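Worked example 2:
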Amino acid sequence: MWPIHGVLVLAFAAAILATTVTFYAGWKLLGVQGLAREQRIGSRELFDLVKVSFGVVAGAGALVALVNGYRRQRVDEAGALREETRLHTERFTKAVSQLGETSEAVRLGAVHALASLADDAPTPDLQQTCVDVLCAYLRLPYSAEADLSDGDAGARHAYLALREVRHTVIRLIRDHLRLLPDHPHSWQGLRFDFTGVVFDGGDFSGAKFSGGRVDFRDATFSGARVDFKDTKFSGVRVDFRGTKFSDGEVTFRSAAFSDSEVDFRDATFSGARVDFSANFLDTSASFRGANFSAGTVTFDDARFLGRGVDFCSVFSGGTVLLGAAFSGATVSFRGAEFSGATVGFGGATFSGATVSFRGARFFAGVVEFCGTRFSDSQVTFRAAGFIGAKVSFLGAAFSGAKVDLSAASGQPPSGLVPPAEKPLPDGLILPTEWYPAKA
């Protein structure tokens, strides 16, 4: 859509250049040594020159017509897009205004209308806008059932109606993320902002988040089951920083995180049952600063292949970032597989918790419990396998905790087995082949 004179000059220059290159290539391929000189031009040669001249003029005219036709087509397409965008905006404005209605039935209609608008959006930006509004609706202030007054039937009915609208939004997002990436109504690759959302139930099972970003920062999972079973996260950043898991159940069973970043830093697990029996493939997962204070968190049969999982504390910018704290919760890594991954528990605290690595397998990679503090907890590594992994307990402190590594196999971790003349710390149980001397 540049100025027409400039476009024509460029078009003629491109045509001349293409003709020159073609002529030169033909000259070389035919092995022409030179052109024979003619002293006189006959009528036949003159007629051929006239035909060539007319051909050049006709070609120039055709080129001008082609450029003008292309520009006219672009102008028509731009006009059609503007008209389509105008109609989309009118429908969008109406649907958004209906989201503010007091009637939940009208809100349900508005939610479906916005989903339909996202499917028919003329541009990706307008599609993202529709999805942003649906996510923003979930971020509005919301009281879960536990916050209702006893015996207030009106409040409970209003809550149930609003809950139905919110769960419909979640269901529509899930359904669109179950579609194949090349489906015209697929929402894969879009951004989803669930910052601060209260989830009192919801089903994301089977959804596929690919590309983009999924943000659950400071969200609250409470009071019901939220299902991420068989959900796929591929090439995406998933942010659960500061998320609160209290009451209810959240399951990631059979979910797959591949080539992604998963961030649970400073998350709080208090009273909920959370199942991370998932596959972390070439994915970094961080639980730095997470607090496991109550409830049950399971990583049973989880697979960490490549990159790694981080529960440790680090020193950054002059500040010590605290590691995960396991206090009062039941955390299980039964049968988990760590292969080629970096697993960090350095600086983590196990206090009053029950943690199981029974049957876990550590293949290759690095596993660090450096500076980890075990106090008043039950931690078991029974039947765990340390095969080819570099495992270190250097600087680990044992105080009133029972740490059981009986029946573990493989090379003993460094910094764990004391010299033969020194007794084992109270509560530390090692395989006899690692420490044959009796304390």
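The longest strand covers residues 208-210. The helical segments are 4-30, 43-99, 104-120, 124-139, 153-177.
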